[in-house]
């Protein structure tokens, strides 16, 4: 790029540097201070040297990214574990609870049920008692306290057919990755 008169004037007017001397290169110390802030809790040469610290910082960001990607799966896993533990306290199984909720059109997923079990235990107990009462009405054997059974009244239209489940279609190629996926039919859209 040629230095024209207009560019020279712009450099003189807008710049905080001297117009005819070389502009100094930016300092590396702000980058190093930022690096030191991130790796301050590391040990040994990972904290004291720049190269090992940069390598450790890349590793930290890599693990943070892995953690972010796995977070939804882990949330579902932890919710299922907590819900099974809460149902174990009430001597009930998840499979029966879910089937009774589907028949009575109660649309609560596992995460919401586990949060209810933790933060609203009385509400969760009433939902489990409701499901136990439905199981007794259908002829299933359940462990039930008589005092809790007296507090639940079921209407005649409480049970029905469950809502149809949504269809999940596979994404991507076939199993051997050489056959293309089949075309969807009109009723599948």
Automatic annotation (TrEMBL):
Keyword check for Translocase: no
GO cellular component, one term: ribosome
Stretches assigned to coiled coil: none
Disordered as annotated region, ranges: 169-189
Keywords from the UniProt entry: Ribonucleoprotein, Ribosomal protein
Single annotated GO MF: rRNA binding
Bias (Basic and acidic residues) ranges: 173-189
Family, per entry: Belongs to the bacterial ribosomal protein bL20 family.
PANTHER family: 39S RIBOSOMAL PROTEIN L20
Name listed for the protein in its UniProt record: Ribosomal protein L20
Species name: Panagrolaimus superbus
Taxonomic lineage of the native organism: Eukaryota, Metazoa, Ecdysozoa, Nematoda, Chromadorea
